[in-house]
Amino acid sequence: MFLSSNKIDEIVSYQFMCFADLEILDLSLNIISNLEDFAFVGLNNLKELYLCSNNGLYKENPIIHIKSNSFGHLINLSTLLLGDLNFPPDMSPIKLHLSNIFGIIPYNLSNILISSGLRPMQLVIGSNTTLDQALNLHIKGQYVTIEDCNSSLLTSVVTLQIDAVYVSCGNELIGKYVRSVVSLEFNSMFSDNIGDLSVINQLVHLKTLKLANIELTKQPNVAVMFHNLTKLQTLILANCRFFFLDGSLTKDLKALTGLVLILKDNVNVLQNLVEHLTSMKYLYLQGLGLYYSCDNAWLLSWVKDNRKVQVDMFNPTMKELQCLSYNGIDHLNFIGYAENCSFENEFFAGQYIAPFYHIASGWFREALRGNGKHQYRYDVFVSYSAKDEHWHGGTSSELREARPSVFQLQLELYCILDYSKIL
Question: Is 386 exposed, middle or buried (0-12, 13-18, 19+ CB in 10 A)?
């Protein structure tokens, strides 16, 4: 039965008494503000009940009253989507007792949405019912606290979506009590009271994780937050703030196939971030801002050369990407800066590689010229930089004086300049 958008404002007792075979009842998009006790008596075969979005054309008209046993006798209910709860103003926070409104929580319950709108909520489970199948739980509100955290109802949760500043059990994030969860989505509001998110690393069955609007720079144990998540396949970080992203975050994410980064503010992305992501097939970057640092220069060549990973970059694109200096003023083209980093590394490496090349080639030339009786024409072969002048004037002179008639020296001089004084 679909009764959505009918301006229904109240469900009275025994209103559906004659619909014993009804399986779906959609009361969404109405203006319901009151559910009387025994409102759904008679709906013994009802499986899906939709009460969400009960605002209609009116604002500030959420559900105000839910009487005891309003959902009693719904023994076959599998889906319950409650609208925003806005109990009387003198009840702060809103308190919802599941066992009270159900009587007995249905064993077939598999989907439940509970929302307190913009108000804090205290959710009391009050029952140790063991469900017959996995539970998808969606909680919305400002601050949500849960009682009876050790209830078997929470151990049945496999999908958990949180749209609140935080959802806690006691003084801890709810994550500690939903150990079977496979998919976790947490949309917060940049609060300082969010709690320690390192508890996420105890959710070893996670396959999908989304964190949004979270100030991760203030998390004390952010480095270990994703440890132990060896089954995680999709990681989404949306509008979160990091100082940097590196391999300490991803060391256990060997099963990760998709990574989505929509980061807030600028960040340093170190090359070892992808070192352990051996299964990754898709990388999505949006709104990426990089600091003026060669630590980030690897990203350009990695995106171009890596054929195993599909990389999508939006707003800006790779060509439009800029890097920001720490003073927040100078903006530089990232591609040009990355090329400078590459040139700089080759330039300094050349100072050391070239002398070693000439030393080795000199030895080989002399070896090839040698014969059986006399392999080398010289007793000493020296290659030195200008910094070794004191050695040449001291030790080598003493050697020549000791055997002046037969001691021969081949000298190859390479001057390694101090370029910092020239540039």
Answer: exposed
Angle between helices 334-369 and 298-305 (to 10 degrees): 80
Phi (first) and psi of residue 233, to 5 degrees:
-110, -30
Strands laid side by side in the 111-115 sheet: 24-26, 48-50, 79-84, 111-115, 135-140, 157-163, 183-187, 208-212, 234-240, 258-263, 282-286, 310-314
pLDDT band at 176 (very low <50, low <70, confident <90, very high): confident
Beta strands in 64-120 (DSSP E): 65-66, 79-84, 94-97, 111-115
**pLDDT digit string (tens) for 307-316?**
889 988 887 6
pTM of the model: 0.71
C-alpha 42/C-alpha 16 separation (Å) is: 6
Domains, in order of start, for the chain: 1-181 (3.80.10.10), 189-202+211-354 (3.80.10.10), 355-421 (no CATH)
Cis omega (within 30 of 0) for bond into 120? no
